[in-house]
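This protein record is not my work; I was only asked to verify it. Take the sequence as given and treat only the tokens as open to question. I have pasted the whole thing underneath without changing anything:
***
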Amino acid sequence: MRVLVVEDERKTASFVRKALQSEGFAVDLCANGEDALATATTVVFDALVLDIMLPGRDGLSVLRQLRAAGNAIPVLLLSARGEVDERVQGLNLGADDYLPKPFALAELVARVRALVRRGGETKPPVLRVADLALDTVTRQARRGERLFDLTAREFRLLEFLMRSPSRICSRLAIIEKVWDYDFDPGTNLVDVYVMRLREKIDADFPVKLLHTVRGVGYVIREPA
């Protein structure tokens, strides 16, 4: 499950990220509203932890724009101010839950888990690109009648690519989302795993789905 945490206080963001990662979530961080809006509209997340007080575009503005665009991502609002009118405004804009600061990390994790569970009830558990299907519950990949045995890292890589089909994913984005690194280790790690994945899902099929965009990254897409 992938969660976007939008928090401009570095220590708070770090604590939240570590708490969620320890419970098995993959976590992305943004420190301002503009980056949060851009990220949430280009990458598929299972939940959004959104601080209201942000530099530039505030959290309520981000929420308003997401809902206006039809983005139904489950949202947990955070705020240092426990004012009732702000809480009501956030809920009226489409927030799913609200947690005032300071908060216990265990409670935040529990609330995020509840949101993800609730959102998963309406979200299809199977991702599809052409005849390739990835079941995010059983963690099985299948193309046609052929079932693939994926390692945990190969599964995360394929899931990341399939959640944004036809979108070119840079090597750095893949490193950040699949390995949870916030830096480029300067190796061919991504290329090696893409090659392994390609050998499994593409090698024995006439139509190729996983493509290299030279100098940019990788994309998975249906044939034109």
In short: The first strand starts at residue 2 and ends at 6. The mean pLDDT is 87.
